Amino acid sequence: MDSDTFFLELPKVELHAHLNGSLSQATMLQLKRFHADSGLEDKTNAFFDEFQIGAGDTRNLTDCFQVFNIAHSLTSTPEALTIATRLTLQEFQDDGCCYLELRSTPKETPHMTKVQYIETLVKAIQKSSLHLTMITRLIVSINRKSSITEAEEIAKLTVEYYKKHPDVIVGIELSGDPMAGTFQSFVPALTQARNAGLKVTLHCGEVCNPVEVMEMLKFKPDRLGHGTCIHPKYGGTEETWETLCKLKIPVEVCLTSNVNTKSTPDYESHHFKVFYDAEIPTIICTDDKGVFSTSLSQEYQICVKTFSLTSSQTARLALNACQYVFADNVRKTLNDKLLNFIGKHSL
Ligand code: 5GP
């Protein structure tokens, strides 16, 4: 089996994918066409070179967050959001994903309420599951720019829809510009969701802020996103690193995202290696496959080539990722799928 086929065929679980950052060029073109056909105003002028953040992009971190507005203006009606979800799910399956936890921030637009946003995503996932073999679950996002009231409103809605659709909604997460807001102000909303049975994942340490990293670690989320500035070598402290090593909270790492937004200078110096060597559970993810023009199989390939992992180590990375999915009832199915692949290829 050639290398590209191996990475494509490796059954992969994707645990960190923002819907609006995952829109491919093909999906955005379909959405633009849908807007034109339905007579909806298309304010995007969405040039892909503006939406995509490649290596060496000169925009700063806050500027990078502006690109999502392009996608948001193409997913502001229930119909467009449905199309975006359907096409994106299909692309993850085509890339060899067997399980996806898609995340998205409910938004109020001129065409839909936050309730409709969540309902649309749930319906689109349920409908897609009728013809896809990939299993999909939803994590609802809270943006760090939200007010406390809005965050609590989203948490309440998430709990309400989790009770109605425990087969779809599995978690809640905190994301958005890491320079905005404070983690502590979101603790009541996140706790409300956690107490109702939802799993929690937090974008943590994207910028150097050891005080906040410690607050997040003490909250003991089920997973962390990125974890860039936790090790002292990367802007963390002995305390943040020792605490993570003790708690062994699984970390969703997104190599190309970190390199292209310059959180990490290059692949070789990515913190994946220190996490892997310290046996912190580390899960390879895409973050925003549309914005960073990548795929999960490509992220595995980059990681494996950069850090010279063997095929057996690669397959075990994918196998270990199954332990950290939020949907407890599918873990065994995913595990068996990976073990079957490992056995078939004598890895
Ligand atoms: P959406 O939630 O609209 O489906 O996906 C896009 C949103 O995800 C962005 O507006 C932003 O709030 C969040 N997001 C996407 N990528 C990143 C990232 O790398 N870091 C953080 N902190 N948030 C992100």
UniProtKB/TrEMBL annotation:
Residues 11-337 form the Adenosine deaminase domain. Pfam families: A_deaminase (PF00962). GO terms for biological process: adenosine catabolic process; inosine biosynthetic process; nucleotide metabolic process. Its cofactor is Zn(2+). One of its GO terms (molecular function) is adenosine deaminase activity. SUPFAM superfamilies: Metallo-dependent hydrolases. Keywords: Hydrolase, Metal-binding, Nucleotide metabolism, Zinc. InterPro entries: A_deaminase_dom, Ado/ade_deaminase, Metal_Hydrolase. It catalyses: N(6)-methyl-AMP + H2O + H(+) = IMP + methylamine. PANTHER family: ADENOSINE DEAMINASE, ADENOSINE DEAMINASE-LIKE PROTEIN. Belongs to the metallo-dependent hydrolases superfamily. Adenosine and AMP deaminases family. This is Adenosine deaminase domain-containing protein. It comes from Spodoptera exigua.
